[in-house]
Amino acid sequence: MDKIIRFSIKNRLAIWLLTILVVVTGLYAGVNMKMETLPNFNYPVVTITAVYPGASPQEMADKVTEPIETSIKSVAGVKNVISTSAANISSIIVEYDDFDQDMDQAVNDLKSAIDKISLPENMEQPEISKIDINDFPVLGLSVYAENKSMEKLTTAVDKGLLPKLEGIDGVYSVDLAGQLVEEVELKWKEDRLKQYGLSADGVLETLQYHNLSAPVGLFHIDQKMRTVVIDGKRTSLDDLKKLKIPIHPIGPMNQPSP
User: Fold this and answer.
1) Alpha carbons 9 and 7: distance in angstroms, whole number
2) SS3 for 221?
3) Greater confidence, 176 or 95?
4) How, if at all, do strands 213-221 and 42-51 pair?
5) Residue 131: how many other CB atoms lie within 10 Å
6) Which of 52, 158, 206, 210 is deepest in the core (most CB within 10 A)?
7) pTM of the model
8) Vertex 14, ends 11 and 15: CA angle to 5°?
9) pLDDT digit string, tens, across residues 204-216
10) Residue 10 burial class via C-beta count within 10 angstroms: exposed 0-12, middle 13-18, buried 19 and up
């Protein structure tokens, strides 16, 4: 320690230069050092979503989920495949065994594998997307109105504000939360179902099948190419009441003759 003190006293200029160098280097590093709340992290998972309007869970499993699973399991690097089949939709999670996996290439490989299999003609093209931990909202907006009901505010935001935000250059996606959501609870009268030869699952599938919107193609409208969609969404109780469900009455008239 004494040697260090004696050296510092005899070489004050060198100590000053060393101190200035350390301070300047620290300031430069502090100003230019990149800081991130969440570091860039490669998560080796890809999700596949397939929509088949009007299909039952069993049809989704047999005609969509299983063929896709069989095809993608042979893709290089795939570790696990987890799937869920429900009415009209199938969700598949593909996990890779290497955190250094090129996820853009992985998405392309899965697309190529799915393109090789035969899927139902009237189903939508499966959506394949990688999970990016950096895909978090960068801007949150709150909307309120003093003289509007929640229903009218929801409509104004959904039909007016949301499309404008989505049309801004550089905006990747816009999600809406906290809006008014109306739901209908279905209760079954078992005796009436038996009377008309129906089942709860059959009625539910009919309701789901007739509550879809389907694109019919591109058409020239007002000198522009526009997508035309048949809107079959049921948005009110009156719409549900007007829906016709095929029935199979059970009674003496339907009994086989002796």
Assistant:
1) 6
2) strand
3) 95
4) unpaired
5) 13
6) 52
7) 0.47
8) 85
9) 777 777 766 665 5
10) exposed
